[in-house]
Amino acid sequence: MKNRTRKRLIDRRNKLQSRFVKGTLRALAEAKAGKLTAYQYSPLTDEESAWESMAPVGREFGSPDYERLTRLDDQLHQQIEESMLADDDDGAAAKEHLAAGRPITYRDPHFPDAIMRKWPNGHRELIDVNDNGNVTVLRTI
User: Fold this and answer.
1) How many angstroms separate the CA atoms of 120 and 97, rounded?
2) In 10 A of CB 106, how many CB atoms?
3) pTM exceeding the 0.70 threshold for the entire prediction
C-alpha cells in the first residue's frame, strides 16, 4: 500500500472517530443541561404490538402458569416416551428407508446405553450422538 493511500485511510478513520466522539460529547452535554429530546421510535406494527402485549412464560419471569405448563410438558414427554416404547411398530417405515438406501437408527435392548445404526447392506454399528449432533461410531457389530 502506498504511503499516500495509507495516510488518506488513516485521516478518514480519524475524521470518523472524531465525528463520533464530538457527537457523543454533544449528546452528553445536552443530557446534562436537560435539552436532550427522547428518540422517537416508529409506530409498532400489529405483530410487534402483539409481542409487546404477550404475557411472559417461565419461572424466570414469575409466570403464574409455570407449574401448570410444567405439568403439561411432563405429560407430553411421558406420552412421547410411551409411544416410542410401544411395541406396535410393524417396521414398514424402517424397511422403506433401507430399501431407499438410507440407514436407520433404533434402540437395541442388548445395548441400552447406545444407539444402533443399520445400513441397507446389513452392516450394523453402535453409535453415540453428542449435543452438537456429531455422530461417533463406538463399535461395529
Assistant:
1) 8
2) 11
3) no
